[in-house]
Amino acid sequence: MHTTDRFAPIRALMMTDVYKLGHIEQYRLAGTPEIVYSNWTNRGSRIDGVDHVVHFGLQAFLIKLGDWFAPFFAADEDLVCELYEERLAQILGPNTIGSDHIRALHRKGYLPLSFSGVEEGTPVPVRVPSFVFWNTDAEFFWLTNYIETIVSAEIWQPSTSATIARELRRVLDEGAVRTGGDPAAVDWQGHDFSFRGMSSVETAAASGAGHLLSFSGTDSLPSLDWIERHYGGTYVAGSVPATEHSVMCTGTSVLGEREMFSRLIDLYPAGIFSVVSDTFDLWTVLTDFLPAMKDRILARDGKMVIRPDSGDPVDILCGTAAELGAGTAPAEKGVIELLWDTFGGTVNDAGFKVLDSHIGAIYGDSINRERAARIIDRLAAKGFASTNVVFGVGSFTYQFNTRDTFMSAVKATWAQVDGVGYDLQKDPVTDGGTKKSARGRLAVTRDGYGALRLIEQATPADEAASELQHVWADGEFVRTQTFAEVREVLAAAK
Fold it and tell me: What is the dihedral of CA 398, 404, 410, 412, to 10 degrees?
């Protein structure tokens, strides 16, 4: 079935909540509005120990905003007004709002808005704004918060995922330092498996880009396209050949599972490849198949990675026995100890065991920061370096979040009416303080320790010295960052 999208010229105008449509009239009850000034702030955290949120996704949003409005500005003026009025009548009944403001915006030819923000990649303390925005033409005071809805919908996902990835990276970095693991290996120790569990291709792409600010491993191809379109520059992102259960089931049905493993080794004589190994009996794979193929695996120019994909990840990887050698059954030993039993390895300068470079493990089911930390602790207790295992980080980490994970919100804090500026503040008596907004125009500065701090009711001098610097104005970028530059900002903050 094919349908014609006749409302395409005004699609961008409809990327808002219905109640926004009437705000142009409501603002005017106070006089003649001229400027509405709003900010994006993460007001709190529902994740223990996390009190900074990575600013990421604004540049991508602004590029998309321009793309969304291009058909509107390119379409016939009368047509866009007719379509706008038709849609309003459909959703609100008789149109009391009119379309004169839409006609005026069309004639303007661009979005009269300005955005100023901290550098993307900056971890911003909660209750400190990441960016502010306002209208640059008094006639379009209504436009600032008209776009609040789409700003909120577009920014929270990449920012939240970037923050969670950073926190996972910190756990893995700490584990590597503690157990003498290769610091460079941590770049690849968190591998994005989340695509299939995200709510859409777009959310998967944006979230996966946030992951790649802290790691280099990904199986989310749309993330690469998202980065290219919105940030560009050179960066590292990679993966390896890997099987799935359908491959192993087919091969096992035709050849037998042992033979399937054997042929995979022949298929990949060099490089890294991964084999999902729990399709039937993980313990048989580890205690029978691999020992029988040990010499061939060690003769390869590369690493064979074993991937369990079910069960409790802590127990599967580390075994149920708390100490090395305390258990005899495969489940007591766990994947890493069993691989050590067969392939051996070395002991690093910190005194921890590192598997032979020809063999490794990855686990990608239900991994999050807390489980990764427990796995590292359990492996360390058995004398193994943390970098013996790679974590497939999926939707269990990146989809179990909402805009409220960091209580992210847009709020207006200043307005100019009839030539007079007014400080605005939301402060509900029924709230415990989370929803209390900042007040007035805002600036963000660094204290003597380099920490970001909010200045409310900022003076022009405060704003000139603020970390909130112009990014975009009147449809054009004032400042852009490549993806590598965003990564550098984040890395420097660690």
Answer: -170
Q: How many CA atoms lie within 13 A of 409 on its CB side?
A: 16
User: Could you tell me the end-to-end alpha-carbon distance of the chain, in angstroms, rounded to an integer?
Assistant: 52
Euclidean distance between CA atoms 13 and 21, whole angstroms: 9
Handedness of CA 152, 155, 157, 161 (dihedral sign): negative
3-state secondary structure of 227: helix
Q: Are 388 and 363 in contact (CB under 8 A)?
A: no
Identify which of 187, 176, 241 has the alpha carbon closest to the alpha carbon of residue 213: 187
- Domains within the chain, CATH numbers bracketed: 8-146+407-492 (3.20.140.10), 163-398 (3.20.20.70)
**Tokens matching residue 471:** 């990014």
**Residue 208 and residue 226 in contact, taking contact as beta carbons nearer than 8 Å:** yes
Nearest by Cα to 244 from 387, 357, 369, 392? 392
Question: Is 437 strand, coil or helix?
Answer: coil
Would you place residue 494 in the very low, low, confident or very high pLDDT band (cuts 50, 70, 90)? confident
Could you give the 3-state DSSP secondary structure of residue 422? Answer: strand
Strands in 282-407 per DSSP E: 304-307, 345-347, 353-355, 359-363, 389-393
Max Cα separation, the chain?
84
Kindly report, residue by residue over 436-467, the tens digit of the pLDDT: 899 999 999 999 999 999 999 999 999 999 99
Is 327 in contact with 344 (CB distance < 8 Å)? no
pLDDT digits (tens, 9 = 90+) for 306-318: 999 999 999 999 9
Quick one: DSSP state of residue 394?
Answer: -
For 28-72, the pLDDT digits (tens) are 999 999 999 999 999 999 999 999 999 999 999 999 999 999 999
Taking alpha carbons only, the member of 469, 476, 482 closest to residue 133 is 469
d(CA 188, CA 206): 19
Q: Rounded CA gap, 229 and 231, in Å? A: 6
Cα dihedral 216→221→225→227 (10° resolution):
-30
Q: CB neighbours of 392 closer than 8 A, spacing ≥ 6?
A: 191, 192, 193, 307, 362, 363, 364, 365, 367
Query: Is residue 295 over pLDDT 90?
Result: yes
Q: Are 104 and 16 in contact (CB under 8 A)?
A: no
**CA-to-CA separations, 318 to 138, 310, 356, 393, in angstroms, rounded:** 63, 14, 17, 18
In angstroms, what CA-CA distances link 122 with 131, 225, 282, 430? 11, 23, 43, 32
Which candidate, 125, 121, 56, 47, places its Cα nearest to that of 369? Answer: 47
DSSP class of residue 119 equals P
Task: Report the alpha-carbon angle 340-342-348, nearest 5.
Answer: 30
